[in-house]
Amino acid sequence: MRERLLAAEKVKAIEWREGALQLLDQRVLPLQSVWRRYGDAPAVADAIREMVVRGAPAIGIAAAYGVVLSARVRLAEGGDWRAALEADFQVLADSRPTAVNLFWALNRMRDRLGRLKPEDDVVAALEAVAVSIHQSDREANLTMAQLGAELIRKNQGNPQNLLTHCNTGALATGGFGTALGVIRAAHLEGMVERVYADETRPWLQGSRLTAWELAGEGIPVSLNADSAAAHLMKTRGITWVIVGADRITANGDVANKIGTYQLAVTAMHHGVRFMVVAPSSTIDMSLESGEDIPIEERPGHELLEVNGQRFAADVEAVNPVFDVTPADLIDVIVTEKGIVERPDAAKMAALMSRSRLH
Ligand code: MRU
């Protein structure tokens, strides 16, 4: 399966080339394919905030490369480069609040900085960590794809109808995707009849990104309004809702793209299984429950306008872009360390004490 997934890989959104970060601009996909080059940390922070790069693991990877760029720039400037680097850490940390992968990656980079020896090449040492964060995310996705596909195979006769939300694919990660990685693997094994992709208002990650990734690989996909999900579960024989995560707390609560919570409630009502796929870098054991997760609110114009064109009445918009699904609505969390069925605090602690499977 690993080789078949590697062979099927079509999309990349993050490249570290010639000492610079290259990002495929996700704001203009799928109509345009524009790569942008970043040479310093504040520019990378802007790219994260403005959603040039998005998706929890991808944000963490971009931030790690942002630290490498910062080290190079601040060392070249001379003076107190460590203080200037620390300020850049803060700029990167302030870019988006909910996906813990960002802070996890920054902590890994800070940890390496703390272990530098006088003879070390600072930039090379940090670069090695950033590259390894990037590579290990790809590897984690390959492992999770196989574990998740196995669960789908065990559940019911094949092929099956699956529903997903937001974009959790190659664009959102270091490669292959989390929930979309599972869907890809399931498709390669002939287990997918059709994928229903929620359009994912207001930013339209589903219609612009997920539908594009799946259609590009010949995976049967239909786009639906977010509000059609319950009806589709009732009428289209959907067996699984499969989503990613931005932060999973110690009790198994899951923050993910706004609309995920209502999908979980609806799935339980219809007897549809609910799978969350996320690497362990998305698990935040320092937070007891989802109540503690900072939920990003983005500007109202994302809701009130399409392509900069106002269409809504002249009212205020409320635009929380993530929500929290309580652990008791989740059938299974898939990570590269293994799976957790019916998550709770004890099972999450046991999972996190394991090393990765492959
Ligand atoms: O606002 P976004 O597009 O960054 O939100 C992304 C999501 O909510 C994804 O579902 C999540 O990050 C998992 S991506 C592998």
Strand order of the largest sheet: 6-5-4-7-10-15-16
Overall structural class, as computed from helix and strand content, comes to: alpha/beta
Q: How far apart, in Å, are the first and last alpha carbons?
A: 14 Å
The H-level CATH homologous superfamily of the largest domain, spelled out, is Translation initiation factor eif-2b, domain 2
CATH architecture of the largest domain: 3-Layer(aba) Sandwich
Describe the global form. Answer: globular
Sequence of secondary-structure elements: HEEEHHHHHEHEHEHEEEHEEHEEEEEH
> What does the largest sheet look like?
7 strands, mixed
CATH fold name of the largest domain: Rossmann fold
Provide the list of bound ligands, each named once. Answer: 5-S-methyl-1-O-phosphono-5-thio-D-ribulose
Helix content: 40-55%
* Total DSSP helices: 12
User: In CATH, what is the class of the largest domain?
Assistant: Alpha Beta
The Rg value, from CA coordinates, equals 20 Å
Mean pLDDT: 96
What kind of assembly state do the chains in view correspond to?
Answer: single chain
Beta-strand content bin:
15-25%
- What are the segments in which pLDDT stays under 50 over at least 5 consecutive residues? none
Number of domains: 2
What is the tally of beta strands? 16
